[in-house]
Description:
Chain A has 126 residues and is mostly beta strands. Chain A is 0% helix and 50% strand. Chain A has strands spanning 3-6, 10-12, 18-25, 33-39, 46-52, 58-60, 68-73, 78-83, 92-100, 112-116, 120-124. Chain A starts with a strand and ends with a strand. The model of chain A has no long low-confidence stretch (mean pLDDT 96). The chains are: A mainly beta (126), B mainly beta (107).
Amino acid sequence: QVQLVQSGAEVKKPGASVKVSCKASGYTFTSYGISWVRQAPGQGLEWMGWISAYNGNTNYAQKLQGRVTMTTDTSTSTAYMELRSLRSDDTAVYYCARRYCSGGSCYWRDYYMDVWGKGTTVTVSS
Amino acid sequence: DIQMTQSPSSLSASVGDRVTITCRASQSISSYLNWYQQKPGKAPKLLIYAASSLQSGVPSRFSGSGSGTDFTLTISSLQPEDFATYYCQQSYSTAITFGQGTRLEIK
């Protein structure tokens, strides 16, 4: 079955960087992209961006531009999200999700997040 | 960015009730609207995509409708496992946005 397994919890100091991994299985990794979504404690969902596992194209949320980098390693079917210059308000659970569409030929708007990882807790504290 | 506004923000209902949650976009998004369910401490789960298409494995008591700016998620007969928070999300814009969530609680 399709599964996304994320790396473990992280505790970081302000100003540091964190890199979260998301290992995919059960499907052809390069056929779909990976989206990243975060959720601060007690808050709603915030989209961070996505990466195409086919060609590495990315689309980042404007508020994170310059601090976030999403990459993939197709040899291990793993996606990565690195966030730099961490602040206390980056404390959140970070989720990866498969960026999927059901049609054979999909327009970029047709994609949705159909399978999610369990989340990685990132705590930023001095 | 396109603003997504859900109403109500919270809702109390009983098992067996019919429940409707509304999501309004700040501009037309055609049918590029998805719905997710999230239980405490768990990842979101896709329920509905493209406004009205039921995700495989999701019970048929869930349904979605709407287009343009106004959308609804309906649960025809609430079951105990449906008490959760529900989010809408638009994919019309390159800047994806979620609604603030609707918390569905047991009355």
